[in-house]
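Figure 2 data, in text form.
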Amino acid sequence: MAILLTNLENKREKFFNIIKSIKDLIFQSKDIKNIISLAEFFGILNVQNFAGIYFDDEIENYIFEIIKKKINNRNFYNKNSNTITFLATELYEYGGHTLALLSWIKFSKNFKNKKLIITKAIPANVENILKISGVYIYKCKYHYLEKIKEIINEALGSKYIVLFTHPHDIISIMAAKFLSELGHMILFYNHADHTFSYGITSSDIVCEISEFGFELNKNKNRKGKKHIYLGIPVPTEKEIDVDVLIKKYNSIKDKKEKIILSCGSFWKYEPYNDISFDSFIDKLLSNRKERDIRFVIVGSTGKEGFWRNVKAKWKKYVTFFGFLPYNNHRKLLDKADIYIDSFPVPGGTAFPEALLRGIPCLGLKTYLRGYHCAENLHFKDINTLVDKVCLLLKGEQNLLDLIVEAFLKTKEINSELAFKDRLEKLYSNQIKTYIHPCSKSNGRIDTSWFEKFWEANKNIFIPPLNIIDDLTPTLKFKLIKTLGFSFEDNRYFYRFINLLLKGP
């Protein structure tokens, strides 16, 4: 669980002082275990705080030079070249990250061997699903330098090495850089394109998922060797015809209870300025005198403070599920009558997935755009969104026409089959550098939005300190001091003073 430095008057200045101090500790340290621990901590710190730092070549290059001195090229030899290796930090039973990996593996049938290296963790049921696809799964056993060697050994000889790594996973990136120097083609799937990440600037091809990512790269000078648009594959177990959507739409007005579903990590619902999902729920339920609507929220437990008013006023009409495994999530999707995209932060996969399953979808327009072709179903403000939902509940024809148009375009560009076509072009070196074909017409993109979101409160998020448990006590002491904790107000300082007194 993250720790907060709260009520900071000079938040940005404080944060950049912390960043500088951590980098100083990295560059001053000679022990590879300390360096990697600090680099991972640095990565997570930047992922959790949108201060405008989206990559750090200095850290990557510094660590890589140390790694090269400690690993001898002659210790490795090439194996079967008709292999594709996927390198992932951790997989989950929920969210779009694992689904995208599943699609990529499924559509890589031309390779005689498919291998997946997991550097951290994989749930048992996800592992079972992947094994059915014919991929060999290797779970790393070692740590730090030995893990880097382990990854290199397992990936050797692969024609492509595809990075599905978490943004802070510096170990995987060091292994990939080494493999790149040995002549392997490194593909980086930029699934977290809105945030800091190691590995983008040193990969051979960066596979972008949105126009937002392209714009951010341009504005922040985040450059890989080559960037292409690959997109997010929207999974469906079977091909849904548009008639299913039309039938669903026309049946809603006659139902006694209308279920409105929304899915997303809890932080995607956290209010920002006047953009508030709980305000939308309140306005819609207040507007609807029939009391025939029930909201189902997946990904948020309802215990977050910003749901307090809705729970007090509309507890009977709002149900929270927290995170759900894919099968349970899809069962809820099939029961839903309407899908509303999360906001102020929209979903990348959940919204178009609901649409392609034949569920009428609507959302709120934000500056976080360019991810899929269903974004023209996002409307300018909460009042307009409420009005559109009310029209949908009445079966209004013009709105149906708009939803059908979005369905057809999303199917054309964002479906798994469209993803498969782009993937085959990538493998045959035919794919061009281009942006998402639907995004430009759907509204302005503001790549500084997350930074404004971060600036809106006075807190700095500090990653859990167990990440740096392997640091020497002296270095722990320096880091804790850098973060600004004190003996009087933080138990972590006391804990690490005790470790320091015990000695290395």
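Caption note: The chain has 19 helices and 15 strands.
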